[in-house]
Amino acid sequence: MPAFPELFHPFPINGVTLPNRIVVPAMVTRLSGEDGVINADIMDRYVRFAKGGAGLIVVEAMAVHTAKSGPLLRICGDEFKPGLTELAKRVHGAGPSKVVPQIIHFLKIARSGWRQLVGDLTTEDIAGIVAAYGAAARRARECGFDGVELHMAHAYTLSSFLSAKNNRKDGYGGSLANRMRLMGEVIGEVRRQVGRDFMMGVRFDGEECIKGGYSVPDARAIALRMAQLTVDYISVSAGGKFEDAIHKPGAPLYPYTGYSGDRCMPGADYPDGLNVYIAAGIREWVRQHGFTTPVAAAGKISDPAFAEALLRDGKADLIAMARPLLADPDWPKKVAAGRQDAVIKCVYGNICKSLDENFRKVVCTLWPQGRLQAPESEDREPPRWPEGAAVTAQHKGGRVYLKWPAATDNEAVQGYMIFRGAENEPERHIGSNRAHGYTDADVAPGTTYTYRVRPYDLGGNRGAFSAPATVEVPA
Ligand SMILES: Cc1cc2nc3c(=O)[nH]c(=O)nc-3n(C[C@H](O)[C@H](O)[C@H](O)COP(=O)(O)O)c2cc1C
Ligand code: SF4
């Protein structure tokens, strides 16, 4: 029996069988130009995920309409179909993964901090959104994707209609039923355009994570309505709203800068699986009402045993891992082969998020410098320390500075994992770095810490732990 039988069990959804229950959720890459056309770098990004063996790959949000934005993919016209068709074909050719595009409509924003609100839209505008979603979904089917995912999460149009802050005075706002009206119209039109036999997923916020926003009780009702409307899977996200975004003068609002942004892409200080209760609450409700619609959970889930337990305990049906799979697209392949020790672990420092915020190409800080894609290596030989190598640790001004010599490898050393233990603190992995040093700013006065460092190579093979270096932080 494989080590993680639930995780690696094939999973059927409306005629499509995912080879396992691991999902790459949508992650904007900023690799496209403003033209929104699929280019070679984008193709390589998704082929790389497919080589790693994830069950479902959701291609980053692409616009169903022509409104201006920074670099963002488009599916708003037939001229985008050749690139998208090639993308679906290349992903299918690279491995068993299934692939769907995430399709998005967003409202206008300006550098002044102004943003268009749902209340500004006329009923003609709303009808245009419904039609644009339908046409984009039809294109997804025509391009050979395995399905389509409707983006109804975060700060974008459909999510803003679902929001408890939607105070339109007509039939599209105010009450929960009215807030769900546009969602229902979009889902209905997409179904009409793609047919019953095409996988249609929806991603939405199970909790807005803003003052006055909705949480699990409304999310349960919304998800149940989705299930009734024949949605094939529900991918649960959280937060990422404009309401609490911090405006940088001269820059457009980025909806992941406030607390709700933290809840969407939680950094290292947040606990693992912090949003699981939301997906679990939704799934329970949908099941209680007789629907088997699969629910995907996301947010700092990267440990295989944890992911397996979530599936086994019925907290989710699918596990979405964004940053862990960006850091190491081979996570599924390695874990399935019993090589979880070779997974290059995301450290949740959110450099990728900050690249997205600044419209720069999204890469992982752990990849070798200058690369646009995760490295590939089948090598099994771990790196080695030079003879007599030692880690040094020095305390200065409330920080501990670590240094070590370069390790060597038959291919190349990719980075170093830093482990820390203390009197009453079991040793744990506190970060990783490409360079030969690390600054630990998170130390408590009056504590003695012990650090060990472990090099790893392009394939994730880990070398020996260094000898421990001990440092006392004065009281
Ligand atoms: C750089 C970046 C871009 C993202 N772009 C999208 C997106 O286009 N659509 C979406 O629904 N979520 C997007 N997300 C959110 C992720 O899909 C995911 O929900 C979130 O990162 C939490 O999962 P994780 O802890 O496994 O990374 C993005 C996240 C990151 C880091
Ligand atoms: S840049 Fe940081 S947070 Fe993003 S994937 Fe890499 S390690 Fe994870």
Strand content: 15-25%
How many strand segments? Answer: 18
Low-confidence stretches: none
CATH superfamily of the largest domain: Aldolase class I
- What is the total number of structural domains? 2
Listed once per kind, the bound small molecules are: flavin mononucleotide, iron/sulfur cluster
Number of helices: 13
Quaternary state, please? single chain
Cα radius of gyration in angstroms = 23 Å
- Top-tier CATH class of the largest domain: Alpha Beta
Global morphology: globular
- The name of the CATH topology of the largest domain is TIM Barrel
What is the spatial order of strands in the main beta sheet? 3-4-6-7-8-9-10-11
> What helical percentage do the residues reach?
25-40%
Assign the CATH architecture of the largest domain: Alpha-Beta Barrel
Structural class: alpha/beta
Mean pLDDT across the residues is: 96
Topology of helices and strands:
Blueprint: E1 11-13, E2 16-18, E3 22-24, H1 40-52, E4 56-63, E5 73-74, H2 81-94, E6 98-104, H3 123-142, E7 147-152, H4 157-162, H5 176-179, H6 181-194, E8 199-207, H7 216-228, E9 233-238, H8 259-264, H9 276-288, E10 295-297, H10 304-312, E11 318-320, H11 323-327, H12 331-336, H13 351-357, E12 392-396, E13 399-403, E14 413-422, E15 425-433, E16 437-440, E17 447-457, E18 469-473
Parallel strand pairs: 3-4, 3-11, 4-5, 4-6, 6-7, 7-8, 8-9, 9-10, 10-11
Antiparallel strand pairs: 1-2, 12-13, 13-16, 14-15, 14-17, 17-18
The site of iron/sulfur cluster (SF4) has 13 residues, from helix 11 and helix 13.
Describe the structure.
The protein has 475 residues and is of the alpha/beta class. It folds into two domains: 11-357, TIM Barrel; 392-473, Immunoglobulins (Immunoglobulin-like, Sandwich), CATH 2.60.40. 27% of the residues lie in helices and 21% in strands. The strands form four sheets. The protein has an eight-stranded parallel β-barrel, surrounded by seven helices. The radius of gyration is 23 Å and the shape is globular. The model has no long low-confidence stretch (mean pLDDT 96). Bound molecules: flavin mononucleotide and iron/sulfur cluster. Residues 25-28, 60-61, 102, 151, 153, 203, 237, 264-265, 298-300, 321-324, 352-353, 356, 362 line the site of flavin mononucleotide.
